[in-house]
TrEMBL record:
The gene is LOC106565520. Residues 54-67 have a biased composition (Acidic residues). InterPro entries: bHLH_dom, bHLH_transcription_factors, HLH_DNA-bd_sf, NeuroD_DUF. GO terms for biological process: axon development; camera-type eye development; positive regulation of transcription by RNA polymerase II. Residues 73-85 have a biased composition (Basic residues). This is Neurogenic differentiation factor 4-like. Residues 93-145 form the BHLH domain.
Length: 328
DNA sequence: TAGGCCATCTGGTCCT
DNA sequence: AGGACCAGATGGCCTA
């Protein structure tokens, strides 16, 4: 079997699946026309001569009407046409073409998704956002920019970051936080507490108008990383709470249902991956709760990093510097 | 080994 | 009839 770069079956793999199926006729609620229900039996190889359904019967074989299990209800609906060799071939060809079209369609969809990724504020070629996270982030990005345009918030504000992180998984939130902190054009100013070994994040000055620091706060009752601070993504757990500050009432507003997954650590900074050990604040992956494996997968990549490890501090580490960096 | 993500195949439905 | 779109199912890959 041919395999593409993902190790998946590709061209030429048509008509091969591991499904064995049977047709059942079930009356629709109005009892009018029957609904064909396929019951899958995974793993069987007996499908190989059957994947074309009843149309793949031996030439000249009549439909199984009245055959087989005598207790089985008679098939309703129009009698199927006899399957000739020519029909078999046409059916196969049609299926092969349909598969190719479907592949092509999905590739187009993926290309569009890749284009979307490329304009996301934390686009990274080494740490690819999953499809669902790309869509969530895109939505948040639009909302955040809209609010910024309306003058409600600055792109440097904490609110902007919060909007951006709404509904995202913790790793993605951290990725966004990291990228906005150390994004292109920005530079990191080492603060005194950093030099003294204190816990503090980098301060971003200048840049592209997105110098945003993730929020750091204590949160009783919520799972928290060992270092005792949380970034803005943890606010998401409060958003869905009844009467909470982030409760959403309108499907049209920019609130996003909270992401229910457990918190996970930062993995990327400035579009690159966090080094596995070099940062004094780096927490090895096995210390994290298992979630959002998609981004973990990217941890196998070993960067390249654009900044020295020593200057990196996970977003969690940045204590609030209200009034210093934020726009609000 | 479990769980997340993904590509692919497939049949159904709708539309032209 | 055929194409586009969709959702379900499946298996591969990867990481913890």
């Amino acid at each position: 079997m041919m395999a593409n770069s993902y190790g998946r079956p590709s061209e030429g793999a048509e008509l091969v699946s591991s499904l064995e199926w049977m047709d059942d006729d079930v009356s629709s609620p109005d009892g009018d026309k029957p609904i064909k229900v396929q019951r899958y039996r995974p793993g069987g190889m007996g499908h190989l001569g059957r994947e074309l359904g009843s149309e793949d019967m031996e030439e000249g074989e009549e439909e199984e009407e009245g055959q087989g299990d005598g207790n089985a209800p008679k098939r309703r609906g129009p009698k199927r046409k006899r399957m000739t060799k020519a029909r078999q071939e046409r059916f196969k060809a049609r299926r092969v073409k349909a598969n190719a079209r479907e592949r092509s369609r999905m590739h187009g969809l993926n290309d569009a998704l890749e284009n979307l990724r490329s304009i996301m504020p934390c686009h990274s070629k080494t740490q690819k956002l999953s499809k669902i996270e790309t869509l969530r982030l895109a939505r948040n990005y639009i909302c955040a920019l809209s609010e910024a345009l309306e003058g409600d918030q600055s792109t440097e504000s904490r609110a902007f970051m919060e909007t951006l992180c709404e509904g995202l998984s913790q790793p993605t939130s951290n990725l966004v936080a990291g990228c906005l902190q150390l994004g292109p054009g920005g530079f990191v100013e080492e603060r005194p507490e950093d030099r003294n070994g204190g816990r503090g994040g980098p301060t971003v000055l200048g840049g592209v108008g997105m110098a945003v620091r993730p929020i750091s706060y204590s949160s009783p009752g919520l799972p928290s990383p060992p270092y005792g601070t949380l970034d803005s993504a943890h606010l998401l757990h409060l958003r869905g709470m009844k009467g909470g500050a982030y409760e959403s009432h309108s499907p049209n507003d920019c609130n996003t249902p909270p992401y229910d997954g457990p918190p996970t650590p930062p993995l990327s900074i400035g579009g690159n991956l966090v080094p596995k050990q070099s940062s004094p604040h780096y927490l090895p992956p096995h210390h994290y709760p298992p979630s959002s494996m998609g981004l973990y997968q990217s941890a196998r990549y070993e960067l390249p990093l654009e900044m020295p490890y020593d200057s990196y501090h996970p977003p969690h580490m940045a204590p609030p510097q209200m009034g210093t960096v934020y726009g609000d």
